[in-house]
Description:
Layout (H helix, E strand, L loop, with lengths): L6 H7 L2 E4 L8 E7 L4 E8 L3 H9 L4 E4 L22 H9 L5 H27 L6 H25 L8 H19 L4 H12 L10 H4 L7 H8 L1 H10 L6 H9 L20 H15 L11 H11 L6 H11 L7 E4 L3 E7 L9 E7 L4 E9 L9 E4 L9 H10 L1
Helix pairs in contact: 2-5, 4-5, 4-6, 5-6, 5-7, 6-7, 6-12, 7-11, 10-11, 11-12, 12-13
Amino acid sequence: MTGLMMPSELQDNGYQEITIDLLRPGMYVKSISYQDKGFILKSEGYVLSLAKVMQLKEAGIKKVIVDPSRQKAVDNIDKVMPNISSSPLSKLNRVGRQKVVSLDDELNKAKSLYGNAKELQSKILTNINADRSLHAEEVRETTDAMVDSIFRNQDALTCLSRLRSKSNYLMEHSLNCSILMAVFAKHLKFDRDVIEQLTLGAFMHDIGKVFIPDDILNKPGPLTDKQQSIVRTHVALGAKILEDTPHISHITMKVILEHHERIDGSGYPRGLKGNDISKYGRMMAIIDSYDAMTSDRCYQDAIDPVAAFKTLVQESATAYDEELVEKFIQCLGAYPVGTLVQLNSGKIGLVSERNKTKPTHPIVKVFYNARLNQAIPIEDIDLSKSKYRDQVDKCIRPEEFNISLLNFFKTAFVS
């Protein structure tokens, strides 16, 4: 139901009209003003996170009407503002949300979103450990905002997902898997609402690991059979948490329940085979394994994306859906965005943009010369252009040249 709220009505009820830039988590929204369309929409509830504010901005909301008397601390919120995508506004802004923007334009938004998502992951793990409830709506706001970013320019979040820390593996792994899932599902042309449900599932697929003892999760050597059995309980434990959480779809649950199932029936927890595993579960198995292989962990060093692709292909006869593996590699490209590469000229740089027509000729942002052992002026090299004779020689690890990718990224991409 829509209708204009007159100034006298605002004053009589103690409400205030504020610009979207002043909206903060904990505020109680009575309605939102979609100015370009000339109406005010009733969409009542508390703002739970900065991701909700970002989502409203992306939907074109300029002003909101709030009730100052009902403002609360975020931890005490009991009535969350409905998801904007379920409101009548969704049809109005769906096209705008998919507008493609440049990498530079999207990176700062993506950086803020990535940081907020990491904080949310940490909060979720802490709350579940303390036997507190999971706010699914807050998680959904964040993952939906991530999907928005992927549709604007998927390379921004993909690039950020390559900057990872061994000490934060559990948190960053789930976040990076959700980014990869959104990119992969978009590539497969799933409907937008399905992409959002899949991204939510990937974000929470390892949530049950919070109940696994740290000395097992972080053990530097091989696990015993008993320890392996304990680790495998994380799937059921995670599913149990979410079964008790309202509004979790069957698609989201499939991602969580089936990400360790394998085509030949050797997976767990149910030992499903072939098409008994949903397409969503088969996608998540590929994504989960790929991100694990390309991450530094307490008991193994990361391998480069190309080596991970080879492993997926080699094991697709028994473990993974062969057709989906092929499509996943096509989706990310021969050298995924964020991959550190050395060119045959000795220049080192990060892949900053894929080349869809020539997958082995991406755009590389170079910043170091291995032959001179020194930094060089930052430059974008499009390997598909004839004026450049450079080609990718190999993928490398930053430790080989004592390179801080985080410092470079801040200088070259975000500053």
